Structures are given as structure tokens and as C-alpha cells.
Amino acid sequence: MRIKVLAVLLLAVCATVALAAPMSVQVRNGKLRATPSQLGKVVASVDYGAVVQAGLPQNGWYQVTLANGQTGWLHESALSKKPIAMRAGTGDAATGASSDEVALAGKGFNEQVEAKMRKDGKLDYTWVDRMSKFEVPADQIALFRAQGKLVGGAL
Amino acid sequence: MNERRILSIVLALSLLMPVLFCGCEGVGEAGAEIGRATGVLTDQEAESVKRSAQAVEKSWQDLTPEQEYYIGRAVAAQVFQSYPPLDRPEANAYLNLLGQSLVAFSDRPETFGGYHFLLLDSDEINAFAAPGGLILVTRGMVRCCQNEDELAAVLAHEICHVEKKHGLSAIKQGRLTSAFTIIASESAKQMGGEELAQLTQEFEGSVGDVVMTLTTSGYSRKQERSADAAAVEVLRRAGYPEGAMITMLQRMDERLGSAGGLGFAKTHPSAQSRIEALGATISTGGASSDAVRQQRFAAAMQPVLAGK
Fold this sequence. Notes:
The structure holds 2 protein chains of 2 kinds.
Chain A: H1 2-19, E1 21-25, E2 29-33, E3 42-47, E4 51-54, E5 61-65, E6 71-75, E7 79-80, H2 100-105, H3 111-119, H4 126-132, H5 138-147
Antiparallel strand pairs in A: 1-4, 1-7, 2-3, 4-5, 5-6
Chain B: H1 2-22, H2 27-37, H3 43-57, H4 65-82, H5 89-103, E1 116-120, E2 127-130, E3 134-138, H6 139-143, H7 148-163, H8 173-185, H9 193-217, H10 221-238, H11 243-259, H12 264-267, H13 271-279, H14 291-306
Parallel strand pairs in B: 1-3
Antiparallel strand pairs in B: 2-3
Helix pairs in contact in B: 1-2, 1-3, 2-3, 3-8, 4-9, 5-7, 5-14, 7-10, 7-11, 8-9, 11-13
């Protein structure tokens, strides 16, 4: 009897673990959506390196719970199973993880290297910075689609 | 004492050799553990061997989205040295609207810094996808497109190169091994001046590899075909006629014929072979652009094309 109870408990624990695993946001501005679709409403934006609890993937989407308890859907391209090293004072810096991967992830070809390239006068980033600021609001995209009779236009 | 040190270095190197030469996963790590267990290596030395082995085993697929982002920025900056940007806010705004409406339907809608699109002030027929999502299209390429649907086909093709990380795959393995080794050895502390200089050198080399592929040598035929096939899928999901890909390629072929093998012709398989490869997967029927799409495409692009 006792063994049976233990077995059930163990299964329950395993199921919980399988249902929600920690994943890291690997894009600078992760878009949490209300539904598992790129056309779904964006309900929150999630910072790079933030750790979320993710369920099982469904057609490229994970249902996630943020640290503040908010739930929604993140596309798999925005998530990584590997923990991400954060610079001190940002996001969920060093959330209990201390593996080599954490230390390595934030290193390498990063802003430090770009700063050196700029300092050495190797490249002119003026237009890279300008084009990186081209943003298109979601409602404009929806209108563009609707007027052009494309998929995902606002009704 | 000195002898012991030499012995441990030799042993460390010998443990690393199989990994260097056959890329057998985990051999270096296992070796380091044996070294540690038998007392030949100190804990610190064993860790160092392990880290080097892990670095050697890494490839372009191990670059994080953040690293991809910084490589892509430098690639775009370098492309601008030969192809100056076209400073036409309205045309660029339209290009970004069109691009963003497609990105949502790709298999990789989110990258570290997101997708951004820009026109280039060049009559050469060309388009470039810098890793991470900075997509550049020449005026000459826009001229090949008769309507929004065909320009959508061009952008979808470039988006799919980003999705599949084709740019990163051009980076020579040797550079990545050096870079990952520097990163690994410096993981515990702040990067010093010398390491940063070395890493920047590998970074420059990597950026050079990507730019060389984008502008001169081209992706492999297989990569081009996979980008074409994925682009057709993006067009279909977005609601554009798949046939726009075919008509765009045909028009490009006509124009390239008179351009004497410059730009796109130099770096891409012939339009005819690309059309043939797509043939089986594409639904028939040419592009028939919607009136609104046609009108907004003309309003945004005609001033740019007429300008020069």
C-alpha cells in the first residue's frame, strides 16, 4: 500500500516536472501572446535572459508562466533550454544556475567586441543603428494585411 | 616539480588530441576526468582541459542568438562599405511593413534583435540577409519586381536565409574553435585586453567569411533551394500567390541576362534551375497582384526607381 502511494506521488512529481520546465528567453524582446499564434495579441514583453516555466511544445509554441505569475504563449524561436548569463543587475541574473554554460553564454562576440570594433574605427555602425530602430507597430501590420487582402488582417 | 608540470601539459594535450582530430564527443572530458582521478592533473588543470575540449566540439550552430546578432550587425556595416544605404524613409517604411507582415509566417519569427529591412543605393540586382535579421535589398532588385507579391517573394527568400542561419554556416570552423577556446578560458573572469583583441580578430574573420559568401562566393545550391522552398511556404501562409516566386525569378533572369553576371547572378544558381527545383512544390498560376497591393507598391517604390 505504502509503495503504491509512493509510486503515485513519484509519478505526480515527474508529471509536474515534465509539464513545466525552466527555459530562458533568448531574444531581447520576447513577445508573450494570448494565443499560440503570431497573430495572437501581445500581452507582455519578456526581457532577454528571463527564466520562464514552460510546458510541452505545441506546433512551435510553449505555454509559459513568467516569474510574476503571468501566463501566455512564447514562440520556440524566442526560447532556449540553456540558461543565459546576464550582466549584473539585469533581468533574472544568475537565477541559481552556476554551470559552465551560464558563464559562457553571455561571453564571446558581444557588445564588448563591437565596442572595440567601433573604437578601432574598423566599421561604421551609423546605418546599422538607424535601421535597427525601424519598428512597425502591430496595428499597422494588421491594417497592411487587411487592406492587401492578406492573412491576418484586422477585421 | 617542473617535470611534473611538463608531464601534465603533455598529458592534457594528448587527451585533447583525439577530439582535435576526430571530433569524438566527450573524449576530452572523459580524459580530463581520468587525469583528475589518477592524480596526474590538478582539479584546475582538468577543468581547463575539459573546457578546451568543449570549445573544440562547438560549431556555428552553437553561436547564441546574441552572438549571431553582433555578427549580423558587423556584416551589415561591412556590406554598407560597398553598397551604400538608400535614405528614402517612405520606401523603407513600406519595405519594413511588407517584411514584418511576412516574418510572422516564418518558422523563426523572433531573433535577438528582430528583423529590419533597408534599401541599398545600387542598381546591381542583389539582396543580402545578414545573420540575425538585417535584410538589405538593392534598388536594382526592386526594379525586377513588378508588384508587391514579387517583392514579397524576394524578402521571404532572404528571411528564410536568416531562419536557417545560412550566413553563420559560412564561418570557418577554425575561427570558431579559437573564439570558443578564448571564451572558455576566460569564463571565470573579466576578459583582459589581450584576449579581447584576439577575440575581436576572430570576430572580424568570421564577419569577413559571411560577407565573402554574401557578396562573392554565394551560398551552396542546396541552401538556395531550401531558402526558395521555405519562402514559397511563407508566401502561401501569408496569403500571397506562390506563383509570385516564379514570375520574380523569370523577370530577374531576363534582367540578369543583360547585366553580365554581376551581383545576384554571381552568387546564385540560375533562375531557370531554381524554377525547375520549385516546380513540383508550387501551385500553378502566375502572380495576379491585388489592386490595393499594386497601388501601394507603386506609390512607395516608383519614386525610388525613377530617382536614378
